[in-house]
Write a structure and sequence with these properties.
Strand order of the largest sheet: 3-2-1-4-5-7-6
Oligomer: single chain
Shape: elongated
CATH class of the largest domain: Alpha Beta
Helix content: 40-55%
Order of helices and strands: HHHHHEHEEHEHEHHHEE
CATH architecture of the largest domain: 3-Layer(aba) Sandwich
Number of strands: 7
CATH superfamily of the largest domain: Vaccinia Virus protein VP39
Structural class: alpha/beta
Radius of gyration: 32 Å
Distance between the termini: 57 Å
Length: 321
């Protein structure tokens, strides 16, 4: 940045804060999308910021602050300074003492303002958290149903939806399960992919033959060896457990040459649901490395990548030649 002869920045060369913030957010998203980025880094950062935030002043600090203001308000600073006069010299010392008091007071006012802002921010953030928990703990009404599964999030599919067809083979049967099955299967078929879907959510009476209702693993058991060109899993991984991944991966390795897994990142899933819902959920998203490790056991290998926000990922594995 250019500076003038006084060492200050010229108004004609000001920093574009919006652009700077955008660049920082882009870089942060890129770092979050890296596979080596710790899934709990954001939580640790929020904890550390809260721990280092200035403590709000207590009642004794405010009382002392008011007493200093009242003391300075009564100081005699109206008379001019004169050299050699004992009385005016005494007033000079009083004014010097008052100036020092004012400097200390300025620092306390600044600290008080920062502490107040930090306290208000903490209160607002805590209030939002409590409101979210209260909504989850509200008593059930006549029209309220209890769901055994965690709330679904279709945002994991949003980023990858337009890029889904690029990973799928042409001229072979493709199975899609299960999030937004009707819409996604229709889009894939419109792009010339021989796709059909299966879902365990919603109504069992669906128009047309493209989407079936049923259990994914039971359906895969009925498929012949190498009977599918690819299988796409979206939504299914959000209810996984260590006991369910092995039979699912085994069935996928038997029936398909390519498998695509799209899922929420575990850290984002837990942050979105909250600690209580996440701990009580029947299953949870797996880390992409866990999928790659599991498919390695059925002679399939591939890659994993995150979206720019780091909130979802895609794993693509193929059978080894």
């Amino acid at each position: 940045m250019a500076t003038n002869e006084h060492g200050t920045s010229d108004s004609s060369d000001q920093i574009d804060l919006d652009r700077l913030i955008g660049e920082l957010e882009t870089d942060a998203a890129r770092r979050r999308a890296e596979p080596a980025y710790p899934h709990d880094a954001d939580a640790r950062l929020h904890f550390e910021l809260a721990r280092r935030a200035p403590n709000p002043p207590d009642a004794t600090d405010v009382t002392e602050f008011i007493a200093q203001v009242q003391e300075l308000a009564g100081a005699d600073v109206s008379s001019p300074l004169a050299v050699g006069d004992g009385a005016t010299g005494s007033r000079r010392r009083h004014r010097q003492a008052a100036a020092q008091q004012l400097q200390r007071l300025e620092g306390r006012v600044t600290a008080l303002g920062l502490a107040t802002a930090a306290a208000l921010s903490a209160v607002v953030g805590r209030l939002e958290q409590l409101e979210g928990r209260v909504r989850n703990l509200e008593p059930l009404g006549e029209d309220t149903a209890v769901s055994s599964l965690a709330p679904e999030d279709d945002d994991a599919l949003t980023w990858w939806r337009a890029r889904l067809a690029e990973t799928l083979p042409r001229g072979e049967r493709v199975l899609y399960a299960q999030s937004q099955a009707e819409e996604v299967v229709a889009e894939l078929r419109a792009e010339g992919i021989d796709a059909y879907g299966i879902t365990s959510t919603g109504s069992r009476h669906r128009p047309g033959p493209d989407v079936r209702s049923g259990d994914l693993l039971a359906h895969l058991t009925a498929v012949a060896d190498d009977g599918l060109g690819a299988v796409v899993l979206v939504g299914v991984p959000d209810a996984m457990s260590p006991l369910s991944i092995r039979p699912l991966v085994g069935a996928l390795g038997r029936v398909a040459h390519t498998v695509v897994v799209i899922s929420e990142a575990p850290w984002w899933w837990r942050l979105r649901l909250g600690a209580v819902h996440a701990d009580l959920a029947p299953g949870r998203p797996l880390d992409p490395d866990t999928w790659l490790h599991a498919f390695h056991g059925v002679a399939m290998a591939g890659t994993a990548e995150y979206d720019p926000t780091g909130q979802s990922y895609r794993v693509v594995v193929r059978a080894r030649e």
